[in-house]
Write a structure and sequence with these properties.
Helices cover 71% and strands 0% of the residues.
């Protein structure tokens, strides 16, 4: 497993940065414009979207992105993008079908 795919813990980031949890969160928000948790969730959602676009099933995409439950994934996906992962996947399939050459 590469370092990029390992779970980050806030405690580890606090040690590296030498900030306490509140100072770390404040500095992170100032730099990134969002909380560390929201940033992590959005990176997971982007990874899941790429998996769906490459043809993965919804459960596989959720697991690949690091969501423990598909329901949790669906809730975050809908909140972030305004549609469910199922609708996103269905729209992807419709686009692919419309791009197919007609015989």
């Amino acid at each position: 497993m590469s370092a990029c795919s390992e779970a980050l813990r806030l405690e580890d980031l606090e040690k590296v940065s030498e900030f306490d949890r509140y100072e770390f969160s404040q500095q992170f928000r100032t730099l990134m414009g969002t909380s560390p948790h929201r940033h992590l969730v959005m990176r997971k959602l982007e990874r899941a979207k790429r998996a769906i676009l490459s043809g993965s099933g919804l459960a596989d995409a959720a697991a690949l992105a690091g969501f423990a439950e598909q329901g949790h994934f669906t809730c975050h996906f809908r909140k972030a993008f305004g549609i469910t992962p199922g609708h996103f996947s269905g729209a992807r399939q419709k686009v692919r079908q419309s791009e197919s050459p007609v015989s």
